[in-house]
Design brief:
Blueprint lengths: L3 H10 L8 H11 L5 E4 L5 E5 L5 E7 L4 E7 L5 E6 L11 E4 L4 E6 L16 E4 L5 H5 L7 E4 L4 E3 L2 E4 L2 H16 L6 E7 L7 H10 L3 E8 L20 E6 L2 E2 L2 H13 L5 E4 L6 H6 L6 E10 L6 E4 H16 L3
Parallel strand pairs: 3-12, 3-13, 13-17, 14-16
Antiparallel strand pairs: 1-2, 2-12, 4-5, 4-9, 6-7, 6-9, 7-8, 10-11, 11-18, 14-15, 14-17, 17-18
Helix pairs in contact: 1-4, 4-8, 6-8
Length: 334
């Protein structure tokens, strides 16, 4: 059976933003090979792992892309300006350590002219990446326009919890791999998909679902929690409270049939779970639900604090339970 933490560490080291997922594609294909009947990588870069069964076609999805920075300009002093791939709160980038594809590293800082702005007023255009270069010419030896950067930093275990860049959504990729390894036999025809470009518009899930044409779709992603100090958005979901079974987010209303199947699997296993209503944010479930003539779609969520920051935090037990819940939901005929 796949170990979720060890697998997450490997995936996190290979993290790349939307459109640049190739290292994760190769790694996931290698990790999944022993646990499915066939693997293919489609034109978008989605890794599609087929576990054959006699029943209905079911697609599961966890996205392997992360948020990141795209270099857009190098100034005369060698500082890098950038755009974003995926959603950032700009102030959270200040003092962040980043690594580029070339191996070059740098730190994000804010223009002096923007230093008096309130945190919420800071824009991406106020920020720059300092890679230690002393001129444009020196920087151009290390970086090209169009290069991408991701947060630098290894996962840190805090008891049962993990603090790390890119729990969104690599902890769910690790959990989906674990679910695949637990599912020895299924009455359903299951496609475990590791999708690309979720952070930039659910693009990979949309094309994969069109090709697979599933009857059911289950996404695995992280969701925010309501147990953070000073939290203004009220949510029942908390870290360590078990898998969150989504009812709604801003991209979809989950189909009652899919929600009921997940709840039934949890209750039969005696597993604690949480009901999730996410007021902001979307998931690959929406792309699956809206493909072709429609798909019965649901989502198993891993509670996560500080989403899209350098130090996202999840409970390893929640991730383990999410893997078990997905495997149980897929086992019997739908």
């Amino acid at each position: 059976m796949i170990d979720i933490y060890e697998t997450f560490v490997k995936l996190q080291a290979a993290a790349r933003p939307s459109g640049f997922e190739k290292p994760c594609v190769q790694l996931i294909a290698e990790l999944a090979a022993p646990y499915c009947d066939e693997i293919r990588v489609d034109a978008m870069g989605n890794v599609i792992c087929h576990k054959k069964g006699p029943g209905k076609r079911v697609m599961t999805a966890a996205h392997m892309d992360t948020i990141g920075l795209l270099i857009t300009y190098i100034d005369e002093k060698g500082f890098l300006r950038f755009n974003t791939l995926g959603g950032f709160a700009p102030y959270r980038l200040i003092s962040a350590r980043m690594k580029l594809e070339s191996g070059c590293r740098g730190v994000v800082f804010c223009d002096d002219k923007a230093a008096d702005k309130k945190l919420g007023e800071i824009k991406i255009g106020d920020l720059y990446l300092d890679i230690g270069a002393q001129s444009r010419e020196e920087a151009e030896k290390l970086v090209s326009i169009g290069d991408v950067a991701v947060y630098e930093g290894a996962p840190c275990q805090l008891g049962d919890r993990i603090a790390s860049p890119y729990c969104d959504d690599l902890i769910a990729c690790a959990a989906q791999l674990s679910a695949m390894s637990r599912l020895e036999r299924s009455e359903n025809d299951v496609y475990f998909v590791f999708t690309v470009q979720e952070e930039t518009g659910l693009r990979g899930a949309r094309t994969a679902a069109y090709g697979i044409d599933p009857e059911y779709g289950f996404c695995m992603d992280v969701t925010r929690t309501g147990d953070v100090a000073g939290e203004t958005v009220k949510m029942e979901v908390k870290l360590g409270g078990g898998p969150a079974i989504k009812i709604k987010d801003s991209s979809l209303l989950c189909n009652p049939q899919a929600v009921a199947r997940l709840r039934q699997a949890a209750e039969q296993a005696g597993m604690a779970y949480q009901d999730e209503v996410l007021t902001a944010g979307g998931t690959d479930s929406a792309a699956m639900q809206q493909t072709r003539a429609g798909v019965l779609a649901g989502c198993v969520s891993i509670p996560c604090r500080y989403i899209h920051s350098q130090h996202e935090m999840v409970s390893l037990k929640d991730a383990e339970d999410c893997a078990q819940l997905l495997a149980l939901a897929l086992q019997a005929a739908l």
